[in-house]
Each structure stands twice: as C-alpha cells, then as structure tokens.
Amino acid sequence: MLPYFLLASSSMTRRLRIDRTASEAIIGRQHRPPPRAFLTVFAPSDRKSPIRTLWAPGNKRGGIVDNTRSTATGPSYDPLSPLQTIRPDLLGFVFHLSWLYLLFYSSAVDSGRPFGGADTTDIIYLSSAVALALTLFVGAIRTKAFMRVAESKPCALLAPAVTALGTLLYCMQLIVPSLALVICGGILTGAGSSVLAARWASVFGNVGSRVVIANFPTILVVIVAICVSIGYLPHELCLALLVLLPLCSGGALQFARRYQRSREAHVERRHDADGTRRRAHYAPLIALVGLIGFTVALLPSFEVSGANYGLLFYLIAAVLVLGFVGTTIFLADRRSFPVLFLAPLAMLALILLPFAQYSTETLGDAFYPVGNIAFELLLLFGTVLFAQATDRSPAKTFMIGRITLALFDMAGSFLGQHLVHLGDATILVQLSGVCLFAASELLLLALVVSYLGHSRRSLGGASAKAGAATTPAAPVVAAKAVDAAVPRRNEVLARIADRFALSERERDVFVLLAEGRSAARIQEDLCIAAGTVNYHTRNIFQKLGVHSRQEIIDLVHDEAATARNAD
After folding, report:
1. How does DSSP classify residue 82?
2. Which of 404, 303, 317 is nearest to 363 (CA)?
3. Is the pTM of this model over 0.70?
C-alpha cells in the first residue's frame, strides 16, 4: 500500500478524480487539468494532508484510489473505501476449498462400507494424495512447461472436467460399491485438483503481498461459513455440489485470469547488481510445512490420552496467524483495519460460537475438519508470501510445499497409529506436547521473520517513492544514497510502463524485452503461446514508438541516465 497525499488549491470545490491516466482532473466548472504546481506529494508520515488516498486495486491502474468525499466543510473519509481492496479474483479459491471439505471431511459420500478393512474415505484420500504428489512433483521439476500446459485452453477445460469426473466416479460407489471406482476416482481427483491448485497459486502470486494479506481474513470467513453450513444441506444437494464445485473452480480461474489481465500492475521484479534474480533455498519452507503437517496428522492419534492436542494446535495457529495478519493490516492503514480485519473476525466469531454450542459432536470432531481446510488456505497463503519474499515462482513454491505436506501428513498418520498401539498414555502425552510446542514455536518464528521482512520491504519502498520530501532514518538514508547512483531497474521499468499505459501482460513482456530476451525465451518464462508474445510485442512497439528490442533497451538506458542525473 503506497500512501500518497494530493494537496490541491483551496479553490477546488469539487471532488478530485483520478482517471486511468492519472493526469487529468475536473476542477469546478472548468474541465481542464490542474497546473502541476498545485499537486504536491507528501511523505507517508505526513498526516496533515486534507485528502488521504489508499493504494488499492479499485482503480484499473492498480494504484491510487480516491477514498474521500467532498462536503461543505471539506473532504471526509469514506469508510467503505477499503472494500475496494477485496479482490473477486481471489475469492474464487473458496470453490476449491469447499470441494476439498465435501470430499474428504464430510459424510456426504461416505457409504460406511469398508473395503478390505479400510474406510472408503481413507482409500480415496490415500489414492488422491499419491496422484497429487506425483503430479506436483513433475510440476516442481519442470515448472515452466507444466504451467504452460496448465494455462493452455485445452488443459484449462480438461483439469476441472477430470476432477469432476473423478468425483462422480467416487459418488457412484454409493450405488455400485466398487473398490476400483474409489481408487480410480481418487487418482483422477488428485491429478486434476493438483493442476487447479497450482493455477490458483499462480493467481495469488500475481498480486502483491499486501493484497494477499488484506484478503486473507475475508476468504477465511467465507470458507468457514461454507464448511459450517454444508452440514445442514440435504444429502442429494451435497452430492450435486461435490461434482459441480470443480467446474466452478475452473470457471473462477478463467475469470481470475481475465480480471487480472484487464488490470495494470506495477513491475515488481527484483534483480541483483549483476541483473540476475536471486536464488532461493526451499529448506526453511520444507522444514516448516513438514513439521506442521506431521504434527497435524500425528496429534489426532493422541486423543486417547484425554487431551485434544489437535484442536489446541489449531487454536494456537489461528491466534498466531490472525495476529500477524491483523498487525500487518493495522500498520499499513489504520482506517482500513476495522473493515478488512475486525469485521471478518466478528463474523468468524458469530459463525463458530453457535456452531460449537449446537453441534452434536465434540469440539475436536466439529472443528478439526474446518481447521484442516483453513490450513489448506494457510498453506497457499504462506507459500505465496514466501515466493514473493524470495522472488521465486509462486506456483513452484506452492507445489513444493504441497508435496511436503502430503508426504509428512501420511507419515504422521501412519506413525501415530503405530505409537497408539505400542506406547502408554504417559509417553503419548509427553510426545504430543513436544510436537505441539515445536510446531507452534516454528510457526511463530516463521511469522515473525515474515513480518520483519515484509516491514523492511515496505519501509524501503515507501522511502524510495517519497523522494526529497521524506526524512528517513539513518539506515534508509544510507541505502537511498547507494541506490541514487544506480536507480533500481524495476523502478525505471515501472516508470516507463506507467508513462505509456502498458497493460499487465504487456508489462511482463516489456520487462523481458528490456533484458534482451528472445521471443522463445519470453514464451517459456511467461508460459504463454508464441502468438501471444508476438501480439503483446507489437502492442508494446506501437505504444512506445519503437521498432526493435534494441530501441527498447536504449529507451530504458536513457531513462536510467535521466534518473541518475535528476538524483
């Protein structure tokens, strides 16, 4: 969120409107742009500006949104303006989570007929987890090729259809009990849902970390409300929803892609001094996800000792994660805090308290499935933030995290069952306490590190954009002095992209063209077709008034030189 303040002359009696080009305003009855001298940019710490604007995606440029209303006494704050931060393209992920809940954690498809001593839900979960892990393993190794195929039109239609078909086969075992139908349904659902989940990770990765954090409470409330209300639906309606939800998820993905491509976003690629992207190590991610997944699967087996450690862990995780999200939203914009965090938190309490009071099951049995689905959302949330912090592919990061979760989840389940039969109650209590403490501490450490890294990047970005009007702290002054000699490449690219009004996809292609990439390399990096590359390249050439890649490189070089001279 970039807090800009616009100060207009006292003669402005009508509302200042910023259009898509951010260069024209309507002043009084004279429909003409205001003089440049009337617009002044203030530092983020300046709170005396009469007009406060938010960085929210309500504007098609993905930039400044006017959240004030002109009154007789002056401009006033619009309390509903933070709602513009809620992204409809991200809310579609609830279809995927709802399908997971219905398939694995509800009794809608459980026939109660065991096959070979195993429950049908366990069989489809195991077969689906194996198929999902194998598919994502291929995707993690060949991410670019995998995502290129996943984003193609045939696969965009095939993946939801395969997932729905696998779900339908699993539902058919209610009529014709068959182990083959259950296993086949599990394989199809695992393969199809893995492609859908990877595409959703890519969708979340296309927005900034602040947008992801701001939308997390709303998405959490929606999915919890769905999970709680599903149990009151008729059995036939649950089966119909179970088959239709993968198709809805695929349709929501197509909408999300069109929605994001119709918006313009800032270039956020980070480079080192030599122009190469920084390498990231996935060991912290694997350790965190593995330990938490292992603990989540292991703790339910220890309920025989009299304490529900699984529910306790979910409560601790909920407090830590919501505390991190709430603190980040509050520090970013206090005025948005009630709408983006307190309101969803109140709705969450209104949903869960009656559910806990009137549920016929124990608290552990009632809340544990909801906690598992919330953890699926947390996994996507955490892997996307990790990818953005380390400048890596969100899809690849999510696939690595999801593979780790699937493997450690199965390992924790098997180990827990054996320990229950082999160990006594005292050992189980001690072991569960150690696992609970270790997982909670590691999750807390990850959130603290993530918050510090997010705050550091926000401080650096805000001070760089504030310019001479800002009086930063000593470390920021030193960093700014170093950056003044060689302006950051992404800032130069963003300035050019803003000037020529490039679309989101054109910005991505423009960044790679400025690096001298060939059309084939751009096609591979962005996972798009060759015709799409040529189409966007022609549009970029036309908007910039150039005829070759070399002219684009020269334009970027001249812009960087101008910025250095200005500094």
Report:
1. G
2. 303
3. no
CA dihedral 168, 172, 177, 182 (to 10 degrees): 0
- Residue linked to tokens 């500094």: 567
Count CB atoms within 10 A of the CB of residue 547: 10
| Pick from 482, 492, 545: nearest CA to 515 | 492
Identify whether the C-beta of residue 76 lies closer than 8 Å to the C-beta of residue 69: yes
Single-letter residue type at 558: D
| Phi and psi angles of residue 53, each rounded to the nearest 5 degrees, phi first | -120, 155
Residue 35 near residue 462, CB atoms below 8 Å: no
Q: What is the C-alpha end-to-end distance of the chain, expressed in Å?
A: 24
Whether 220 and 161 have beta carbons less than 8 Å apart is answered as no
DSSP class of residue 270 equals: -
Return the pLDDT at 533.
83
- 403: which 2 tokens? 């593979």
> In the beta sheet, which residues pair with residue 30?
27
User: How many other CB atoms are found less than 10 A from the CB of residue 502?
Assistant: 24
Q: Which amino acid is at 543?
A: K
All structural domains of the chain with their residue ranges: 1-85, 88-264+272-449, 497-567
Candidates 1.10.720.60, 3.30.70.250, 1.20.1250.20, 3.90.580.10; correct CATH number of 88-264+272-449?
1.20.1250.20
Residue 387: partners with Cβ closer than 8 Å, 6 or more residues away: 205, 393, 394, 396, 397, 398
Alpha-carbon gap, residue 484 to 20, rounded angstroms: 29
Residues of the chain with pLDDT under 70: 1-81, 108-120, 263-280, 301-308, 359-365, 420-488, 524-525, 527, 565-567
Distance between CA atoms of 191 and 175, rounded to whole angstroms? Answer: 24
Helix (H) or strand (E) holding 74: none
Instruction: Report how far residue 102's alpha carbon sits from residue 99's, in angstroms, rounded to the nearest whole number.
Output: 5
Q: What confidence score (pLDDT) does residue 233 get?
A: 83
As a whole number of angstroms, the distance between CA 511 and CA 515 comes to 7
Q: What is the pLDDT of residue 80?
A: 64
